[in-house]
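Internal ticket #5521
Category: modeling
Description: The requester needs a full-assembly model to guide mutagenesis choices. All entity lines are attached below as received. Residue total reported by intake: 433.
Assigned to: D.W.
Attached entities:
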Amino acid sequence: MHISIAKDFSDVPWGRFPSDGDFCGQNFRELFLVPALKNHDSVTVDLDGVEGLGSSFLDEAFGGLIRKGHASEADLGAKLTVTTSQPEYEMYLDLVRRYIRQAQEEADRELVRV
Amino acid sequence: MRGHEVTLPERLDLDANYSATISAMHKVRLAAQRQFRMRYLNFDHIRHISPSAALLLASEIDRWNDSIGGRIRARDDGWDPAIRHLLCEMGLFELLGLKRPRETDGVVNTTFLPFVRGNVGDRTQAGIQAKQLRQQIEAAAGTDIKKHLLFDGLTEAVTNVCQHAYRKRGRRSKRYSPWWMSAAYAPTTNTVTVTFYDHGLTIPGTLPASQKMERWKHRLGWWDDGQRIRAAMTIGRSSTGKSGRGKGLQNFLELIAAYRESMLVLSSRHGRLSVRNTGRARLEYRTQTLENPVQGTLIEWHFVPKTATNLARNAHFHR
């Protein structure tokens, strides 16, 4: 399953929640990522063509998968690939990894507390 | 102020003439808040206006127009030609209800781009507006800029406004929760200035003291607004206290880290944080306390496009 954020969702994605804007991280997660991960063994998200990807969007879209219980870091490691052919956008690959890892660490801490 | 006339100072500039500039803005804000009609806004004495002061002025006039339900009155016959040119470019004539001149003959050394207004609840507009502003900057500067870093900075600023800046108290505050952005290009120094402003609760006004030492400093009155703004730039700090939040202000730094000659200035309430990139390994941080507060949060990015580097991705670790 291949998802292009720019072509399938918006070339100007921004914001965290629908109250920020329609092309926010939560909408991308719920409308694209969650169904794709549920129905496919392999999902590739292509970042090419977007104007940019702010931290709020990335964190809610990808870190939110773990916070909302849709997947674990291990699940995403096995199923999800995030890609770009634009060298300047490679910073976003690091950020996606970081936000997924942080969300998993928070989830693990919550589990210990419970 | 004579009667209800506000006279704007000769140098409308937050760096060179902070007190007089912010004082004039406060008078216009007061007129809007107290719902009284100003006779005139007098532009005749202005000889210099900086891009950030111009955006503050536009925002206050915009607010006054919204609050009073009519246009503020101004005459443009006594204006300095260069100021007329700049403010016409910026879109102030439309705000003031003045007829746009066919030609402006003032000699200017800066290009002001039209300011953009947004409101919390617009939902779809901010991303498109940020992209359009970038395209206008590139057209004015005649060169590409790091579009993704500018987009991330501007849209995170809008996201912060949507989530933190305006409390949802009462019907009016829900309806009118504005923000403004604009840009300017100075060919003589090859400098781009991008400015974002909101009239909200400010960063120091919404950031809780989260560490033990900060709570002590706060109680003793030693934790000033400049330090609060700097604390807000720390990864993971947020006024919401929710997990996953507080990453947005980092995006403001990315653009600065990507240009060897650049500066970020974040002014909010009584605090100002300046972050300068001089091409060294570390960004230079400086905090200040402002005697008269900025009524809201003002973000300024200054950068020279030709000094672009590939260091942006490491911005988080340069602090």
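Resolution: model delivered.
Comment from assignee: DSSP finds eleven helices and ten strands in chain B.
Ticket closed.
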